[in-house]
Design a protein that fits this description.
Alpha-Beta Plaits; six-stranded mixed sheet; Rossmann fold; four-stranded antiparallel sheet
């Protein structure tokens, strides 16, 4: 099984420190959601794993080797990002055939099947296709490469909802048939959360947390009811978020509820529900006031 390990990893562009003291390890064939606000360092981190850049400091190893300019490692990693295909005169199928030569796990038949599903079969040059079709092409390459480490860095940009839905279905299906390390970086948290086995949140160039999806959600609850009852219940607890509509108030709490808390919530006539990853993400990555 492949392994990615970062230790005190740092990356700076000139005097701009983009990643600082990043530590994490990935060693299971799962789908990892990499979440972070704009400028948090997601793409920078992924470009290091994808061998596009070299760290300024610290260590990054893929299968025990330094990935930068390492031909063996580079063949095992596919990094798909929001590319500009200006000047790409080949049509999708001809480009897939070229890519196949350099990717040891590439499945051309599966690639052709995906071209059909995403309606990319015509002989039109890739540069002449719409943004959505170009993004779909990136998805086809990423999935058909079947690399042990496959990274999709916001590749869905420009794809409409049905195309994104098709991408998610194919991703889950192919992951089941050919398990690998999949890393998805995204802004569409509420749309994609069900894909993640594990979540990594990056904030201000540091890893804020790395946790199994279900464990992470168990850290929060939503409590809804009359304003007075909710206020009474919330006293002394860590409130992440609150919303009010008329006399009804909903709060998001961080931390699991004890049995006493649960009993007291029932007594106060409050509804307790799960928290969404989207809400938890927004609260955890809020800028400090």
């Amino acid at each position: 099984m492949m392994n990615i390990k970062a230790k005190n990893l740092q990356l700076a562009y000139g005097s701009d420190q983009v990643l600082q003291d990043v530590n994490f390890e990935i060693n299971e064939a799962k789908i990892y959601g990499l979440l972070g606000r704009n400028g948090a360092g997601k793409t920078s981190l992924l470009s290091l794993i994808g061998s596009f850049r070299e760290p300024t400091n610290g260590q990054l190893h893929v299968n025990g080797e330094v990935p930068f300019e390492n031909a063996t490692t580079m063949q095992q990693v596919t990094f798909m990002y929001n590319k500009d295909f200006q000047g790409e005169t080949g049509h999708p199928l001809s480009i897939l055939k070229d890519i196949q030569r350099y990717r040891p796990n590439f499945d051309l038949e599966y690639g052709k099947e995906l071209l059909k599903k995403f309606k990319l079969e015509d002989k039109k040059a890739l540069q002449k296709l719409s943004k959505g079709k170009q993004s779909a092409f990136n998805v086809v390459v990423g999935l058909a490469s079947r690399s042990p480490i496959t990274i999709f860095d916001e590749v869905y940009l420009g794809m409409d909802a049905p195309a994104r839905d098709l991408f998610y279905k194919e991703l889950l299906n192919d992951q089941e048939l050919h398990p690998r390390i999949m890393i998805l970086s995204t802004h569409l948290v509420s749309e994609m959360d069900y894909l993640f086995d594990e979540v990594i949140i990056i904030k201000d160039g540091r890893i804020l947390l790395q946790e199994a999806y279900d464990d992470l959600l168990s850290h929060g609850v939503t409590v809804t009811g009359s304003k007075q009852a909710v206020d009474t219940f919330a006293e002394g607890k860590e409130v992440l978020n609150e919303e009010q509509l008329g006399g009804t108030r909903a709060i998001t709490l961080y931390g699991e509820l004890s049995e006493t808390d649960q009993a007291s919530a029932i007594e106060l006539g409050l509804d307790i529900g799960p928290v969404s990853l989207h809400n938890l993400f927004i609260q955890l990555t809020k800028e400090d006031e």
